């Protein structure tokens, strides 16, 4: 399969590049301010885990280990913006006051440096 170089020096197959284009187009079709927020979260995900492959999963931007594997993370644009970890990712009990509950979704309305840092931590945690 031919390889294509995207910006930021990433190598991607033509299938991965097509899938990335679909995710970028999906985000570009959103209204502001959601579009800007989703684009920023997409960038944080790609920077935190350059090996994840973006693609559309059930109509949402999603990220998986490969084009043929299940999505580990999704971005959802409903009444609120949402970053979710799918059941295909390793989930661990939260501990502390949350006991055996396993955090799997986070809503956001804005993106600041602390939120970007936490999103990057969540993204890296699905790769463990």
From TrEMBL:
Protein name, UniProt field: DUF1801 domain-containing protein
Domain of life: Bacteria
UniProt lineage: Bacteria, Bacillati, Actinomycetota, Actinomycetes, Micrococcales
Stretches the record annotates as Disordered: 1-22
Ranges of biased composition (kind: Basic and acidic residues): 8-19
């Amino acid at each position: 399969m031919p390889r294509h170089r995207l910006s930021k020096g990433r190598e991607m197959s033509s299938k991965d590049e097509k899938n990335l284009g679909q995710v970028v187009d999906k985000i570009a079709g959103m209204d502001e301010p959601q579009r800007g927020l989703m684009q920023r979260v997409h960038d944080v995900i790609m920077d935190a885990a350059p090996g994840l492959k973006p693609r559309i999963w059930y109509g949402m931007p999603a990220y998986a280990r490969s084009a043929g594997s299940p999505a580990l993370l999704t971005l959802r644009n409903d009444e609120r913006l949402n970053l979710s970890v799918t059941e295909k990712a390793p989930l661990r009990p939260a501990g502390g006051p949350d006991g055996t509950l396993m955090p799997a979704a986070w809503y956001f309305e804005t993106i600041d440096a602390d939120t970007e840092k936490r999103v990057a931590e969540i993204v890296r945690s699905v790769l463990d």
